[in-house]
Amino acid sequence: MAEQPIAIVRGAPLLKLPEDLYIPPDALEVFLDAFEGPLDLLLYLIRKQNLDILDIPIIQITTQYMDYVELMKELRLELAAEYLVMAAMLCEIKSRMLLPRPALTDEEQTDPRAELVRRLMEYERYKQAAQALDGLPREGRDNLPVTAELSSEHIRRIPPTVELSEVLAALRDVMRRADLFTSHRVARESLSLRERMSRVLAAVQRGGFVPFEALFDVTEGRAGVVVSFLAILELVKATTLELVQAQPYAPIHVRLRGGAA
């Protein structure tokens, strides 16, 4: 079975790609999409072969470029007009370099490749700058802004610190109420601080938050209130209890340290 040609170029079957054409065969159909224009293609051909951009072998580059253009025509792929314009420009430069040059005059003769070299170098600078910018992190491509909303049910509110002045104010109110029962006292047993600490702990363990005033028995008078207050302070000092206040000047509550908020 005869080998099928890749394309027909100028009436002759093309069985393999030219060796100096640096274009992968499976990329021909989308080749135009891989380059930004004819300058990009020329720069690719130059850099692929490690050629000096200031001394372009115009004949070699023109041959490769024209092979590509002809092959694309045979594959019936639409070529942009700018690619054909560049092909004409390369052919013009090639012809000017093949023609015999007249003797040099007073002014040095201009290199036919000078304008093409200038455009290629300028294009390469812009391309490198674009690649450097593209390498920077970009929102929406490399990172995405993230927002999160917490339900109010999952927010742990830390109560404000209870000021000593407010504790003393609450004690003053309890003492004022205890004074009302002073005349009713007949006899009393000696008060034990340790026993009162146990009583306070038992009262707090029955519920989460206990009002500060509820830990005092005003019928015991000032002495009973003072012992209860000292018992509370000792337990707070031992980090067994803590004083909690929802907001400044709000009622003070007592709870076991580490209890649920």
Structure description:
With 261 residues, the chain is mainly alpha-helical. It contains eight helices and five strands. The chain has helices at residues 31-34, 38-48, 58-74, 81-98, 114-134, 164-178, 193-205, 221-237; strands at 7-9, 12-14, 210-211, 241-245, 252-256. Helix 3 (58-74) packs antiparallel against helix 4 and helix 6 (164-178) packs antiparallel against helix 8 (221-237). The longest helix has 21 residues, at 114-134.
Compute the average pLDDT: 75
Helix segment tally: 8
Query: Which oligomeric state applies?
Result: single chain
Number of DSSP E strands: 5
| Radius of gyration, in angstroms, nearest whole number | 47 Å
**Largest sheet strand order:** 3-5-4
User: Which descriptor suits the 3D outline?
Assistant: rod-shaped
Helix content: 40-55%
Instruction: Give unreliable regions as ranges.
Output: 25-30
